Amino acid sequence: MAGFPFTIAATDGEARTGVLSTSRGDIRTPAFMPVGTAATVKALTVDQVAQSGADIILGNTYHLMLRPTAERVARLGGLHRFMRWEKPILTDSGGFQVMSLSKISKVKEDAVTFQSHLDGSRHVLSPERSIEIQADLLGSDIVMQLDECVAWPAEEARAAEAMRLSARWAQRCKNAFGERDTQALFGIQQGSTFEALRRESADRLIEIGFDGYAIGGLAVGEGHEGMVEVLEYAPAMLPADRPRYLMGVGKPIDLVEAVARGVDMFDCVLPTRSGRHGQAWTWEGSVNLKNARFADDDEPLDPTSDVPASRDYSKAYLHHLVKSEEILGQVLLSWHNIGFFQTLMVQLRAAIAEGRLDAFRREFKARQRIG
Ligand SMILES: Nc1nc2c(CCc3ccccc3)c3nc[nH]c3cc2c(=O)[nH]1
User: Fold this and answer.
1) Is the pLDDT of residue 371 over 50?
2) Cα 113 from Cα 148, distance rounded (Å)
3) How many Å lie between the centroid of ligand 1 and the Cα of residue 220?
4) 3-state secondary structure of 89
5) Domains in the chain: ranges and CATH
6) Which residue intervals define the domain tRNA-guanine(15) transglycosylase-like in the entry (predicted)?
């Protein structure tokens, strides 16, 4: 069968918990996917990422096509062998990163042309080339269509234009991807914060038919309330029997509220990026270990965790490492944060399975305020 089996084990309101079975292993949903942009989840080994409970990580077409180039990764056996991560990998199509990273870029009907932010070299990314890079050269398990994500806030006419271009590119990506059953292709809903555009985008993607559907165009500055407003209607526009992936989200509270509205998969750089800057996420909210109040705190971040970074090291030691700008500080806090995000997903999956998601949400929000 085209794509991967997605088995929903239980629901609680709009929320679902289940398993997306891929050719490289099962993904427990709701799932948080650590971002491994340049073939590494920054500061962590793949063993630490696996030990944290992650079933899947993300790779990036934009970064890898520029360095070390997709052809070199292919010559070296593909992205899984290159980075020694044998579980599933999802890759983004590159368009979003072109718009946010490359100095000069131009979006045309046929393709996006841009200059590398590394050396100014010129590159072309068409729907067909993005599929070739992801599916054939990197060997990604879940491939994302090439799309155009408009910045927020957007004029409705501009959002409509980008959404319809993305829908035309979706068809071209589906044609280029062809019939594969060991890899999956996801479409990406666009339409910014306009409900009618989101509906038109969803209808066009369903007409084409995808193995999963992403909600794009969010986590681009609209804020938590702005995102939740769209999540009141967008997830339900997408097929209930396929995975729904909210791109680029988010903070723990964002994950909880999006799961409650029917989202199954998430990615965000937050746990690793904030870890590198001394921030630790906890059940009481986020804390910065640079704060002097931790200088003599001999307790670990979470003694109940099975992640060594959370269980074995005192906050005093973490404070010392962060103040001293020691690399180990970045490693341990990134590891702790990835572990915390995975533990949050474990708790969400259990709450949905046991029909107590509303109670979990209330308790989670109450505890987050203390921190
Ligand atoms: N293709 C695409 N990507 C997005 C990302 C990157 C997610 C990503 C995937 C894989 C690796 C890194 C990043 C977004 N991040 C925040 N908001 C986002 C929106 C979009 C979007 O609309 N389309």
Assistant:
1) no
2) 13
3) 9
4) strand
5) 6-268 (3.20.20.105), 275-370 (no CATH)
6) 14-367
